[in-house]
Amino acid sequence: MQKFLLALVSLVLLSPTALAQVWHLEDCPPGHAKERLEFREQLKELEPGDRGYRPNPFPTTTDEVVENFLTFHRRAYSDMAFENLRPTDQRLFNLVDSGHAKYTLRRVANWTPTRCRKREREDYFYVVQVIDSRTGVEVTRFAVDEEGDVAQLRHRYMDPASENDLTPMPDLRTASPTNLPRGISAPIKSRQYVNVWGSVRCGLLDPCVAFKAGGKTYFMKEGEVYKVEVNRRRMTVAGEMGSAAAKQAFFKRMNDRNEMFASIGAGKLAYISRVEP
Q1: pLDDT at position 33, please?
Q2: Average pLDDT for residues 214-240, to the nearest whole number?
Q3: Taking a C-beta distance cutoff of 8 angstroms, is the pair 169, 156 a contact?
């Protein structure tokens, strides 16, 4: 790749937004403190060229998150000439190098079973929207985990006639009394973006909005609101899906009973119900 693509660029940044402390419905099991501490120290000792190197282990600011992503993404294409890159990647690099890239940072709580690993603790991900400051159009969206590693990437299609695979990010303010079912009348609290797996799926790059109201927990996807049945028995991924046969039986049972479930992190599953308008 051309030399200018390997150089670190100056960053046009926005202040981090929606970075309040994330919350979860289930704690990670105790233990593994030693393994996590060792992993953190290993990351800090890595140097450029080492496998797994990132400039900013455990990033906390927009510029650190973006620098990690650009370092990873440029390295992935370091052996390719610019003209051989995919058009979407050419567009991204041109935008960044021109100084017209603007970055909006959000933090997404991780409610999937991946949250509590032995070495990594992924309570949340940083999700960044890369916007062309000249047009206001989002061209790329990516996620970086709390250890600073790139988790996911998605580009907007180049062909205007193609389906746009960058769906609009929901606004936390959509969880307001005017946009919710009439049965939710208590004050809305603790709004956050959330990644959920289950009968209803909220992707990492297409998160839902979770919130609390009247002592109950909800999340919203595309205008539909779901209540997490925190008082019902909680299930475990290992217990319900420990084998292919058990997983098949679990999904059949849920379907036969017309019930839904969602992950709440730490390998736990909870029943959910749709809130009627």
Answers
A1: 78
A2: 94
A3: no
- Output DSSP code: residue 14: -
Tokens of 193: 């973006």
Indicate the SS3 state at residue 49.
Answer: coil
CA distance 67 to 186: 41
In this prediction, residues 119-128 reach a mean pLDDT of 91
Which residue, 276, 171, 170, 172, is CA-closest to 227?
A: 276
Residue 11 has pLDDT above 70, yes or no: no
pLDDT value, residue 161: 66
- Partners of residue 150 on adjacent β-strands: 144
- Angle 62-76/87-98 helices, nearest 10 degrees? 140
CB atoms under 10 Å from CB of 185, counted, come to 10
Which whole-number Å values give the CA distances from 135 to 127, 129, 151, in the listed order?
21, 14, 27
Cβ atoms of residues 129 and 136 within 8 Å: no
CA distance 54 to 146: 12
Q: What are phi and psi of 81, to 5 degrees?
A: -70, 150
- Domain chopping of the chain, boundaries: 3-21+29-155, 172-274
Tokens describing residue 89: 């990647």
Q: Where are the alpha helices (DSSP H) in 80-220?
A: 87-98
3-state secondary structure 110-124: ECCCCCECCCCECCE
Q: What distance in Å separates the CA atoms of residue 109 and residue 122, rounded to the nearest whole number?
A: 9
Could you read off the pLDDT of 170-182 as tens digits, one per residue?
999 999 988 999 9
By the 8 A CB rule, do 3 and 76 touch?
no
DSSP string, 121-141: B-SEEEEEEEEETTT--EEEE
